[in-house]
Automatic annotation (TrEMBL):
<dbReference type="GO" id="GO:0032259">
    <property type="term" value="P:methylation"/>
</dbReference>
<dbReference type="Pfam" id="PF04672">
    <property type="entry name" value="Methyltransf_19"/>
</dbReference>
<dbReference type="GO" id="GO:0008168">
    <property type="term" value="F:methyltransferase activity"/>
</dbReference>
<keyword id="KW-0808">Transferase</keyword>
<keyword id="KW-0489">Methyltransferase</keyword>
<dbReference type="InterPro" id="IPR006764">
    <property type="entry name" value="SAM_dep_MeTrfase_SAV2177_type"/>
</dbReference>
<protein>
    <submittedName>
        <fullName>SAM-dependent methyltransferase</fullName>
    </submittedName>
</protein>
<dbReference type="InterPro" id="IPR029063">
    <property type="entry name" value="SAM-dependent_MTases_sf"/>
</dbReference>
């Protein structure tokens, strides 16, 4: 396969990426055939994959609008992915044009494309970093004075933590990030819990083992543990489409059993 012009020189176009698989489901163009094949096979096991990917994106928009309405003007979006329509800075700046956003991703395609489209925006920054190394992220934010960590920040971990295995200490990573944020900050998190059946779940896990970030579903109690130190805002930790649905938007709610939990918590 010929490498497209937008691909970084050191990208492995023969290995799928969770970020680029998600891009497939959102209708993006920054993905390779190997990503599209994994997306197709995942859809066979989890028929709701595309619906949930789009519902996840819609939730992100609702959560950002909610936070901006609460006065949050700084966002740290880790696992931000490949840019598409209604990115965090675009949604938040409809409420306040001075909002600052730091995007963080480990995928080189996501980072390269984000930097390309945001190069003239002095109120956004794009970091290539790993949530499993929270001190690295925080050090880059502080050194570049990208955000003021003495003022409330929204920490966005949307569709990220199910790609962090238990052996990589996911709870410790979130705690280290949260501990660096002042009172009045928020945590926004979604995490995959289960699919249509144990057999389908195992098939999807097998597919994602081909990526650098294997899939780790968690149950509701395990997901709620990420919010330790935060007070969940209404309606709490709920199925993704049920978090403050927008009554003006028609929602495709024909989900056959796959489940992603979503929640927003405030640090007291």
């Amino acid at each position: 396969m010929t490498e497209p012009d937008w691909a970084p020189d050191d990208i492995d176009i023969d290995r799928p990426s969770a970020s680029r698989i998600y891009d497939v489901w959102l209708g993006g163009s920054h993905n390779f055939e190997v990503d599209r094949e994994i997306a197709r096979q995942t859809e066979l096991a989890w028929p709701d994959s595309i619906r949930y990917a789009r519902a996840n994106r819609a939730f992100l928009g609702r959560a950002v609008r909610f936070l901006a309405a609460q006065g949050i003007r700084q966002f740290l979006d880790i696992g931000s992915g490949i840019p598409t329509a209604n990115n965090v800075h675009e949604v938040a700046r409809r409420i306040d044009p001075d909002v600052r956003v730091v995007y963080v991703d480990i995928d080189p395609v996501a980072v390269a494309h984000s930097r390309a489209i945001l190069r003239d925006d002095d109120r956004t920054a794009v970091l290539q970093a790993d949530v499993r190394r929270p001190h690295d992220i925080l050090d880059q934010v502080r050194r570049g004075a990208l955000l003021d960590l003495d003022r409330p920040v929204a920490l966005l971990l949307v569709a990220l933590m199910h790609f962090i295995q238990d052996s990589d200490e996911p709870y410790e990573s979130v705690t280290r990030l949260a501990d660096s944020l002042p009172s009045g900050s928020y945590l926004v998190l979604t995490q995959g819990a289960s699919g249509a059946s144990p057999e389908a779940d195992e098939r999807v896990r097998e597919l994602y083992r081909r990526t650098p970030t294997p899939l780790t579903p968690r149950n509701r109690a395990e997901i709620e543990r990420f919010f330790t130190g935060f007070e969940l805002v209404e309606p709490g930790l709920v199925n993704l489409p049920d978090w403050r649905p927008d009554p003006t938007v028609e929602v495709d709610d024909r989900f056959s059993g796959a489940l992603i939990y979503a929640g927003v918590g405030r640090k007291p």
